[in-house]
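ok so for the tutorial part 2 we go from a plain amino acid sequence to predicted structure tokens. step 1 is just haveing the sequence, like this:
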Amino acid sequence: MQVAVRLCDPLKEYAGCPSRISVDSCRTVSDVVDALDVRYPGVSRRILDDQDRVRRYVNVFLNGEMIEVPLKEALVRDGDEVYIIQSVAGG
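step 2 — the prediction. this is what the tokens look like for a chain of 91 residues:
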């Protein structure tokens, strides 16, 4: 089972990875983030806070829909796409 992951540019640059990554054997979006962190250590700390909740300036989407539940409850299937985007502020 493969899940495609797309990272926004700041996360991609931090992790030193391509903007599109495939991960295997994930059951939840939380597993996807864990798999990313194994490949690119430290990237999960840019996505999750100390309580393993999505940081307030990060949005996570599953197949184009923003995830509103804890990542451990968001199930993934073969062929799903996860998008991880950091909000940009400024003026």
